[in-house]
Design brief:
Elements (H helix, E strand, L loop, with lengths): L1 E8 L6 E9 L9 E5 L7 H18 L7 E4 L4 H4 L2 E2 L2 E2 L3 E2 L4 E2 L24 H13 L4 E8 L1 E2 L2 E5 L7 H6 L4 E5 L7 H10 L12 E9 L5 H18 L17 E3 L3 E5 L4 E5 L6 E2 L4 E6 L8 E5 L4 E6 L4 E2 L4 E7 L14
Parallel strand pairs: 3-4, 3-9, 9-13, 11-12, 12-14
Antiparallel strand pairs: 1-2, 2-4, 5-6, 7-8, 10-20, 11-13, 15-22, 16-18, 16-21, 17-20, 18-19, 20-22
Helix pairs in contact: 1-6
Length: 352
């Protein structure tokens, strides 16, 4: 395994950022290659743990000559966001200067040619140059996995509808309990940017069915442990075996995934109409009926007249909850997957 460091010059004198890239060269040029990155949101670490435990598995496979396709890993894809701290709290979701989500406004390319992307020393903000470098690293690969997590969550993946059911193997390997499918474009998250060239490839092209581009949500922010990291690493490894990137016999059974496959427009983002303390009545993974109590927002502690009870707008599956227990007016509280489109649905690959 080769380890290299890309240096991203900062936007002010004396500042620079380091992007570590790990590569394993395969021994079969015909095998599908894979790109995995984690922590594009600088404070999300379940994916970092998964890659941490995946690396020794890949090193062992490399020694045995089992790596068929090239593999590129970026364990911490956002050194800019990881360095942003405010009052002892990490602030890795939004770039502090532009206030832009690090997983938005990526580059739109018409094909797999990355020569038009700005160089690492281009006269552009560091965050923009970082996005260009990540896409430049990713697009040569057929398999592109962007590893994230939610606040409190079940394990699930976002995929473009064109890649389903072809990516049922990933959902099975990672023991996902749900899949969210999307179409169209919105704010150009990394997944959208990486998927667009593949989506423009004709479906009858020889390599079309080998392509897999997705955002993986490895449960919640606090689901970082050696046990969880090893489990997720094993799932990623088994998926790469199933795809032929790593030689071996796959243990994946497609029938192991039996969760809902829900169009993104059916995801109900339940918002709070007022700021206050959050008291949940449901856990992630629960199935609820329309009108069921989901959460109480306490706006006047000690005075029940200020309690606001939010109910399910339709029957469905509780996929995520916010990890914070005090929210502002208009904040998302939880995500419910229903059988029909939400009245507040937006286009794109991600809901917020």
């Amino acid at each position: 395994m080769q380890r290299t460091t890309r240096i991203i010059p900062g936007d002010t004198p004396g500042q620079q950022f380091s992007l570590e890239v790990l590569t394993v060269n395969g021994n079969n040029p015909a095998a599908p290659s894979a790109y995995l990155q984690a922590a594009l949101h600088g404070g999300e670490f379940p994916g970092v743990a998964a890659i941490h435990f995946l690396v020794p598995m890949l090193e062992a496979a490399e020694k045995e000559g089992m790596i068929a396709g090239d593999i590129t890993l970026v364990p911490m894809a956002n050194p800019i966001g990881s360095a942003q701290w405010l009052f002892s709290e990490p602030q890795g979701r939004f770039e502090l200067f532009s206030r832009t989500n690090f997983n938005r406004d990526h580059f739109e390319l018409g094909d797999f040619d990355t020569s038009s992307l700005p160089a690492l020393n281009a006269p552009l903000p560091a965050a923009v140059r970082l996005k260009a470098e990540l896409l430049r690293l990713a697009l040569p690969h057929e398999i592109i996995l962007d590893l994230h997590c939610d606040g409190e969550s079940e394990q699930y993946i976002y995929i473009h509808k064109a890649f389903w059911p072809g990516m049922r193997d990933l959902a099975s390997a990672l023991k996902c309990t749900a899949v969210l499918t999307w179409e169209g474009t919105a704010d150009f998250a990394f997944e959208e940017a990486a998927a667009q060239p593949a989506l423009k490839t004709k479906a009858d092209a020889p390599d079309y069915n080998r392509r897999a581009v997705t955002t993986v949500e490895f449960k919640g922010m606090s689901d970082v442990s050696a046990e969880k990291g090893r489990e997720d690493a094993k799932g990623l490894y088994d998926f790469l075996v199933h795809r032929g990137t790593i030689k071996g016999r796959s243990k994946i059974r497609l029938e192991d995934f039996s969760g809902p496959v829900t169009p993104l427009q059916n995801a109900e983002m339940v918002k709070t109409p007022a700021g206050g303390m959050v008291l949940y009545h449901v856990e992630v993974g629960n199935t609820v009926k329309k009108g069921a109590k989901l959460v109480t927002i306490v706006t006047k502690p000690g005075d029940a007249s200020g309690d606001l009870v939010l109910t399910a707008p339709q029957a469905g599956f509780i996929l995520t909850r916010r990890k914070h227990r005090f929210l502002r007016r208009g904040d998302d509280v939880l995500k419910l997957l229903g059988a029909k489109p939400s009245a507040t649905a937006k286009p794109g690959s991600l809901e917020a």
